[in-house]
Automatic annotation (TrEMBL):
Keywords, in A-Z order: Flavoprotein
PANTHER family assigned: FLAVOREDOXIN, FLAVOREDOXIN-RELATED-RELATED
Residues of the Flavin reductase like domain: 9-156
Pfam family, one: Flavin_Reduct
Family designation: Belongs to the flavoredoxin family.
Name of this chain's protein: Conserved protein of DIM6/NTAB family
InterPro entries linked: Flavin_Rdtase-like_dom, Flavoredoxin, Split_barrel_FMN-bd
Species for this entry: Candidatus Nitrososphaera evergladensis SR1
MF annotations from Gene Ontology: FMN binding
Keyword match Lyase: no
Length: 307
């Protein structure tokens, strides 16, 4: 038996679609919180609805409208969701739904997003029916915010959350090097090795600046970070055992007034196998330090080690 707490379903937070249809059951609108985009290309939208005039119309004419309600439309959402088309002609109630003609179904004015869909698949899914449609049009209103439905209440979207990234200021040279590492990606996603040999930690000089940094590599998208770290350490002549991920640090790297780069560093704890004599501080590119060079970037990345 599944172990499901009472009312667990109320703890999702969704937008609400006003699903519009036309057919023998008449022009109709229903509220559906289970409505979402499920593919970018083609743009596919799934709705999950029960056996009702909305479904009958959809099966009949193969079209439906997904009008994502704006946060000033809770009233009409209530009506669309509170009555069935078998009971009243909802769209004909005076001064309630403002409609315009779509390509095959009526559409609702004033919504945050409006998509017209051609049915691609209809499939029973538990006690509901999944209808997937391919969007043949999609328009949005920048000024409108979607209404949110959760725990049986309608809500407005709150403020935007702070990014939570730690701001780190860098010299122009060091910044340029991280920027180059990012390969033009919006976020630099790097793996960093904290290689320990007893109480000493390995640092490497950054290529274009003289700053010290922990050995870092940008793994190819979708590849194993641990393996990428292992290969990178080998490539700089370091034999080390990789223990595992110590933590992940999300930063906003900044330089000057204008330059900024989002950076995620996945920090791996590693133990050096054996340091060759000539590796020990001699080649000017690597250095084993008892006390790490001081800067906020390194301090943050090394913090995980203390736990
Ligand atoms: C906020 C809200 C969300 C709803 N979401 C869904 C849903 O995702 N799927 C569904 O089948 N019914 C949902 N309903 C219930 C239908 O909107 C309701 O049964 C409606 O009367 C169906 O319209 P119709 O019978 O005219 O087709 C929701 C109701 C409300 C108020």
């Amino acid at each position: 038996m599944p172990d499901i707490q009472d009312n667990a379903h109320r703890y999702f937070a969704t937008s609400v679609a006003l699903v519009t249809t036309d057919g023998k059951s008449g022009k109709n609108v229903m509220a559906a919180e289970w409505a979402m985009q499920v593919s970018y290309e083609p743009m596919l939208i799934a709705i999950f609805i029960h056996d009702s005039p909305t479904l009958w119309n959809i099966k009949e004419n193969g079209m439906f409208g997904v009008n994502i309600a704006a946060d000033d439309q809770a009233e009409i959402v209530n009506i669309a969701g509170g009555y069935s088309g078998t009971e009243i002609a909802k769209l004909a109630i005076p001064q309630t739904f403002q409609t315009y003609a779509g390509k095959g179904v009526p559409m609702i004015k004033g919504c945050a997003l409006a998509c017209e869909c051609k049915v691609m698949s209809v499939q029973e899914m538990g006690d509901h029916v999944m209808v997937v449609g391919e969007a043949i049009s999609a328009t949005f209103d920048e000024k409108k915010s979607p209404l949110i439905y959760t725990r049986g209440n309608y809500r407005k979207i709150g403020g935007k959350l702070a990014s939570g990234r730690k701001t780190v200021r860098l010299s122009p040279k060091a910044f340029a090097e991280f920027k180059r590492m990012s390969g033009g990606q919006f976020v630099l996603k790097a793996a960093v090795a904290v290689v320990r040999d007893g109480r000493k930690t390995l640092f490497v000089r950054m290529e274009s600046s003289s700053s010290w940094m922990l050995p870092a590599v940008v793994p190819e998208r979708g590849t194993d970070y641990k393996k990428a770290v292992s290969l990178h350490l080998k490539s700089i002549g370091v034999q080390a055992q990789i223990e595992g991920i110590a933590g992940i640090e999300r930063m906003m790297l900044k330089s000057g007034k204008q330059q900024s780069l989002r950076a995620n560093f996945v920090v791996f704890s590693c133990t050096a196998n054996a340091i060759k004599e000539d590796d020990d501080n001699n080649d000017n590119k690597k250095g084993w330090f008892l006390h790490p060079p001081r800067n906020l970037l390194l301090k943050s990345l090394l913090l995980f080690q203390k736990a």
